[in-house]
Amino acid sequence: MTPNERAAPEHLTVEQACAVMRQAYQLGWISTRDGNVSVAMTDRRGFLVSGSGLIKHALVPTQFALVPAGGAPRVEQTPRPSGELELHRRLQALFNSQHLTVLHLHPTHIVAALYAGHRLAELSAGFPEVTRYTRVGPDVPALPATSEELAEACEAAFRPALGAPPHIVGLDRHGVVAVGKTPWEAFEHVERLEHICRIALAAGQPLAHAQGARHAHAR
Ligand SMILES: [Zn+2]
Fold this sequence. Notes:
Layout: H1 10-26, E1 36-40, E2 46-50, E3 64-68, H2 85-95, E4 101-105, H3 108-115, H4 120-125, H5 128-131, H6 148-157, E5 168-171, E6 175-180, H7 183-202, H8 208-218
Antiparallel strand pairs: 1-2, 1-4, 2-3, 4-6, 5-6
């Protein structure tokens, strides 16, 4: 790809995506090479996705791979697209927007809440900080990273039977996928959910569905 092929206005968005990955690393939401991000191209030619195995806190716009709409990336291109390419491909196609960021991170407290057995949609329902701005979707079960099954399950979680799609879904034993019009918007959905998971875990919040099950049993 020549520099002209990814000329503005994408360039600014891709720079923001790099800044988001730097910030996520600084917050401890990813280790050095974890996480990935894609941004749609405004002319609908496809999307740009972060390269595979790169140092995410030092990511730069030239380290994104172009994935043409409805097609496969060029095999010989450098960098190679993220190992979670299929997840990005499915979500970029599902939302089909000129202004879409798909962000995948491993935020500590969200993963810990899932690991403790919380359901993120139930947990967040009691916190207006999240419910006012961020729709939390159904949790995706533990599936192998970079697998087709994980990509399929994420797509299903972002495709509601009724109503608006979620902004963020949790992946058990793994992380989150968030979407936004910009990289920072996607980041904010992660930040809100991470914050309330941290609060709930610090308070030793009991599991809502486990409580429900106990009450049902008592009756
Ligand atoms: Zn991951």
